[in-house]
Specification:
Layout lengths: L2 H33 L2 H33 L4 H36 L5 H11 L3 H13 L3 H25 L5 H22 L12 H35 L2 H37 L3 H28 L1 H8 L8 H7 L2 H17 L3 H26 L1 H23 L7 H28 L1
Helix pairs in contact: 1-6, 1-9, 2-3, 2-4, 2-5, 2-8, 2-9, 3-4, 3-5, 3-8, 4-7, 5-7, 6-7, 8-9, 8-14, 8-15, 9-10, 9-12, 9-13, 10-13, 10-16, 12-15, 13-14, 13-15, 14-15
Length: 446
């Protein structure tokens, strides 16, 4: 496949996957805030946050290392890499289950969230199933099979959304415990789908392959640490709001956070398809190409970010009214302020991705760890002084400082032109306009 064909095809399926996941998650959120009280919904948000942290950290331990090593590999070597990844995935999952089970009571008490322990215990029952499922998703990315990744990905989010819709339309009662069971049962369907999609690429050579286990472990340990710390950093406002204030404040922050998640669709889609290409160019010592990919992808992200900020700032009240209702209008100032994170998020995200791609995951982990430390301090201080709005100030300050440091570090290894990024960002708008006009004209002529 040509370079342009790769970006168009992979970008289409990756963006479509993120878009559908966001759409059904967003609608599901709109339904759940109307089914549950703010207190119960706050507890659910904390559970989902914990589950997301576990998933992102665990996947990070395997994902980038496995993708980096499977690129260009075939037959027996590919099978050995897969077997090694499954071994590591299994060991880490067992450790995570032990940590969750032993800390569930503490988290329920600390975050003032009755019922949180039961939700975590239910999730632990299904975590072993996520070992092969997450492996399959990573394998699809490593073999550039984003079409299969799309179908496997939505096979989890769509069924769960349909269950939520059923309870809302049928007016049947729904408890948090029931919701947790349905949330986790969706993984069963997702696993069956992903296993079918990779049936031709899934190969194992049984045994303990020390060479590949060592390579994936030593690469993945930094990415695991980075992902874990990054997720803790992005979630620290929710945890601190729960600990210092109440689950109600968590629910309010989440209503605005759902809008911020819209920004993650283009950012995560672009980063997911840029990492394999950047890794490939880095392996070939073509650092000029790596820098070009960085500039191109950050400019693409900025094109979405600028529009996003204008929309979120000027229409915040109407957004909150539509998605959550009048009970959540206290979140309007929080949404307006937290939307400014769209300025620094592309730089922070891609700098981290490209440090991994050029084989410097340790730098990324150290920098993200710094975000957690001073971000925790900043958020604690501002929440204590300003309440909900302080959470937004703390998050933006922490991510902005880390993005600046990451840019300085990345420039030590790559010759990046931020002037080019700005120029490409501006040029993307007339390009998009011309493309839209051309497609409309083509449809009219048909």
């Amino acid at each position: 496949m040509s370079k342009s064909g790769y970006w168009l095809s992979s970008g289409f399926y990756s963006m479509l996957h993120r878009g559908i996941d966001f759409f059904v998650g967003f609608l599901g959120f709109m339904i759940l805030v109307r089914i549950f009280s703010k207190e119960d919904f706050g507890v659910w948000v904390l559970f989902i946050t914990i589950a997301s942290i576990v998933e992102m950290a665990r996947n990070g331990f395997i994902q980038n290392g496995m993708i980096k090593f499977v690129v260009g590999k075939e037959n027996e070597e590919l099978a050995k890499i897969q077997m090694s990844a499954i071994w590591l995935n299994t060991i880490l999952t067992v450790l995570i289950i032990i940590c969750l089970l032993t800390s569930a009571s503490w988290m329920e008490s600390t975050f003032q969230s009755p019922g949180l322990k039961s939700l975590i215990n239910i999730h632990c029952l299904f975590l072993p199933l996520l070992i092969p499922h997450s492996h399959n998703l990573i394998l699809m990315q490593g073999t550039f099979n984003f079409r299969s990744y799309f179908f496997a990905g939505i096979s989890r989010s769509v069924p769960f959304f349909l269950i939520v819709v059923y309870f809302y339309l049928s007016k049947n009662s729904l408890t948090l415990i029931q919701l947790a069971w349905y949330f986790n049962l969706a993984f069963v369907f997702a696993y069956l789908s992903s296993q079918y999609q990779v049936r031709h690429q899934f190969r194992l050579v049984w045994g303990w392959h020390q060479e590949w286990i060592s390579k994936i472990f030593h690469f993945g340990k930094f990415v695991f640490g980075t992902n874990l710390i990054s997720m803790l950093t992005s979630s620290m406002d929710k945890f601190l709001l729960g600990a210092l204030l109440s689950p109600i404040q968590v629910a309010l922050a989440n209503s605005a956070g759902r809008i911020i998640n819209l920004l993650d669709i283009p950012i995560n889609s672009i980063s997911s398809i840029s990492f394999p290409k950047a890794s490939e160019a880095s392996d070939q010592k073509n650092y000029v190409e790596v820098a070009r990919i960085y500039e191109f992808t950050v400019a693409s992200m900025f094109s979405f970010s600028l529009i996003f900020i204008l929309f979120a700032v000027f229409f915040a009240k109407y957004i909150i009214l539509i998605i959550a209702g009048e009970d959540y209008l206290e979140a309007v100032p929080y949404l307006q302020l937290i939307s400014l994170v769209a300025v620094v998020k592309p730089l922070d995200r891609q700098a981290g991705v490209f440090l991994d791609a050029i084989g410097k995951p340790s730098y990324n982990m150290i920098l993200v760890f710094g975000t957690l430390i001073y971000g925790l301090g900043l958020s604690w201080f501002f929440i204590d002084k300003l309440g909900l709005i302080g959470a937004a100030i703390g998050v933006i300050s922490a991510i902005g400082l880390t993005a600046l440091i990451k840019m300085v570090v990345l420039n030590r290894f790559l010759d990046i032109s931020y002037k080019n990024i700005l120029i490409q960002t501006i040029r993307n708008y007339p390009k998009a306009y011309k493309l839209a006009i051309a497609r409309l004209s083509k449809k009219k002529s048909q």
